[in-house]
Every structure is written in C-alpha cells, then in structure tokens.
User: Fold this.
Amino acid sequence: MFQQLLQRIEEQLLQEKPLVVYRKPSQKMVKGIFQSDSKIHYCIDFKETGFVFAPFNEKGEVILIPIDELVQSQFEPSEHSISLNNKSQIDYPSTDIDEKNFHIQLVAKAIDEIKKGRFKKVVLSRLMSATFQGAPLQLFLKLLNTYTEAFCYMWYHPKVGLWLGATPEVLVNIQNKQIQTMSLAGTQPYTGDPDPDWKKKEREEQSMVTNYITNALKSLVTNLYISETESLRAGSLMHLRTKITGRLKVLDIKKLVKLLHPTPAVGGLPKSEAYDFITANENYNREFYTGYLGELNFKEEIERASSNRNIENKAYRSIHTKTDLFVNLRCMQIVGHNATIYVGGGITTDSIPEQEWGETVNKSATMLKVIQNR
Assistant:
C-alpha cells in the first residue's frame, strides 16, 4: 500500500502538479494530498479546507493545496530506507563576505541594538547550500526514517518550488474550539541526558516566547493553562518547551494565526521592531522558512464507546473539525540536485556571537544528516 503512495507521488511530480506528503509527530500514517490542476490557490479567510503553506512574511500570501485527492498509508521506519550517494558535499553559497564572519558580525550588531533598547530578542538566520545525488523523494523517505518525533513533509508546486523539512514545533492545534500551542526556544546538542542543565540565556529566551504567546491569547481564549517547562529532544538537539492550552471564545482561525505568527521563537520581541531588523539585515529572503504549514479545517471522524450501559458493544461517531499547523523549521528548498538549508537562532542580550554561529552549525545537522547519508 505504501508503495502505491510512492508511485502516486512520482506520477504527480512527472505531471508537474502540486502535492504535499507528510506525517505528523509520533504517528505512522503518511498522507498525500494531490491537486488536480497546476493553479496557485490561496487561503483568504481561513475557512477553506486544505493544506496551507505560509511564508515568514505575515503579509505574504498563504498557499492552499485543496484536497482534490487524498492517499494515505502506514509507514514503518526502516522498511523503505534508501541510501544516497556518498559523494554529497557541502558548498557554501557564493558571496563576497565570508559567511561565518558575516553572521558573527550580524549577531554582534543585534546585541548592540538590544542593549540600546530597540528590542529584547531577535531571531537571526542564514542559509547554506549542499549538493546531493538521488531524488527528492529519497530525501523524504530518509526524513521519515530519521525523525519519527517531528512533522516531516515534502511540498511541491511547479510555480513555487519544492520544500522538505522535519520540524519539532507546533504553531497551533485546533479541534472545534479547543486549542493547543507551545513555546519552543533554547537549544543545545543532545548528549544523552534527557534533562540537561540550561543556561540563563536559554531560559530567559524561552520565557519571552511563553509570555508573548500567553498574553496574545488572553483576549481570545478561556481556561488558559500553561504547563511546566520541560526539555524536549528533537533529533540531535535539545530544546525547552512549554505547552499552552485553552478554549477559543469565537472560532476565528485567521485572527488567531495572525496573533501567533511569527512568534518570538522565529522573529523576535517586540514583533515589528525585530521583523524590521531581520528584513533589513539578514541579507536574504527567508521565503517559507519560519513560516507555517499544515492541515486547515480537516474533518475527522471519532468513534467512542456509548455511555449507555444497556447497549453493549455499541459506539457512536462524531465529526470534528481539526486544524494542525506547524512552524517551518529544519527545512530546505530543493532545486535540481542542490539543497538550500535554512538555520537560525534567538539572540538576546546574553548571546555570544561565536556561540550563536555554533548553534546554527548544530541545527544544520538535522538536514545535513539526511543529505550526507550519515
């Protein structure tokens, strides 16, 4: 059955028609959504149904792949493992300025602006390039095998491009009016300890994100609950995570997403000042990196046991509307046999430029592990 899904993906790519294939965290079901034409459909009021793909720029258009055809199948890790050619190598993008020095100087500039009071935090990113042998579908299979706890996807539109990723961060989950989101910030390499020590910088960075999200939600939700902060492993990295839940007063997904995106985990705080600094100084267009993607207004049938004790072995079914959106981290854009990989990190007053460079190197390992066959 999974082989049939793979064949359907290959057919759609050959026909140059839009598709997205993905698996949610800790699940085995892989879903493929296939569009019947090559048009670009946009999400206007978030009352549509389909798979959305949004850029970092909150004013940018959100692309929608409608559910013209849905194919899904169970995936067992290792069953479809495909090795890539070991000739893959890393090539930094051609630039007049050394990439490492540029990023270190950019971080130092951001720290100066923070000390001047322009903003409290800003997330700065960079890109790198890698060549690989094989097909994008092989990379997607490697993502499925390698990152079982992440949202893994391959997204393609002939008029936009091809993207793959394995992100650990939820933007928001909505079922009817019940919502769940998270603040995810702070990074260190995984060394085998599931609960490592965290420095002041990482804890304060994570706290900023948590406070922003909870304050943004207060006017929209009731029964707001904030969990204890915990360590979360995402591949070879560890992060700090706080879960936030509540119930929407009014189901307005567009308004909710506008408040949340971009969160300080990918932009900064205050939101507008950090965004202006990013767009003026990063020296490249993030496009869909640090945007969001996922299911919008999907219908899900839930079967539950009947509460009537006089009726044995009976069940009732209810239809729920669900929206599951994820932040597009740990991702890459594919053009031919070249992959552009996007990585970044949060900068605060306690940041050390050389260490921030090292954090982007650590984060790049998520995609490089897939490309380099290591």
User: Anything to note?
Assistant: Residues 83-96 have pLDDT under 50 and may be disordered.
